[in-house]
Prior knowledge:
Four Helix Bundle (Hemerythrin (Met), subunit A), two-stranded antiparallel sheet, disordered N terminus
Amino acid sequence: MSDADMLSVTDHAAEGKGMATTDSVPVRAQERSAPRRQEVIERIKEYILRNQLKPGDLLPTESELCEAVGASRSSVREAVKTLSALDIVEVRHGHGTFVGGMSLAALVEGLAFRGLLSGEDDHHVLQQVVDVRQTIEQGLAAQIMAKLGGDQVDGLAHLAEEMGEHAARGEEFLEADREFHLKLMEPLGNDLILQLTEAFWTVQAIVAPTLRTQAPDLVITARLHSAIVDAIRADDAAAVRQAVADHYSPIRAAIARANGH
């Protein structure tokens, strides 16, 4: 008997016994499907680890993967969809399924959604994101200064000037801001710190518009980026830490205004 026939029989049996159904699938079957899918997800992750696959490596074909993890095609497909959303695997249509880049896309999506949910209320998530960003940058100030070369500092100064030009015209400067903070962290050579920096920056960029930032805040923020560069050039770690804290003061003030403080 085919899977479709079995499902039909199960549906009729459920109707005969008065069992609740949703979209023609018994509630009990739905409850069983989630644990099964999670089990297959874990088996695929174990397969990747066991075979020491790296980001970009090709996974077996669907039929081979089914055999390797002991699951049906439908179960493997559902598991792959979930793993793809988490960037653990990457599906390239016509080419196969590969080990993903292991980005923090799922973290960004989840935090941004939570931030938007609370955005019109208390901006609690945005406040936490700002706290994390400031903590990372202040904590690494001395290491950043030790690693930054002259050309890299000049690049940061150029980006700060670009922000100032945009702000003077009342324009946003998101891309320059993003690049500034990534370039600040790049010399450390730590991919995870770089990913975290970009992830939390992205969440803030998505959620911050709920604050309805005022034009003067743009000018102040641009100027405070320049102050970070000046402190780096002065080779003063304490001044860099203070400049980083000052640089977050406009958005902290905007959060306070939005909360009626």
